[in-house]
Fold this sequence. Notes:
- By secondary structure, this protein is an all-alpha fold.
- About 80% of the residues lie in helices and about 0% in strands.
- The chain contains two helices and no strands.
Amino acid sequence: MRAVIGLALACMMLAGCNTMAGVGEDITGMATWAQSSMGGGY
Length: 42
């Protein structure tokens, strides 16, 4: 269920971006959030 919510949030955030740099920042932010929420931070 968590993955579905995360995917939906990622899609909404990506839809709000107008530039390639913005998309890259959103992807980086989502990856960082996912890593921290799974407890796999190195």
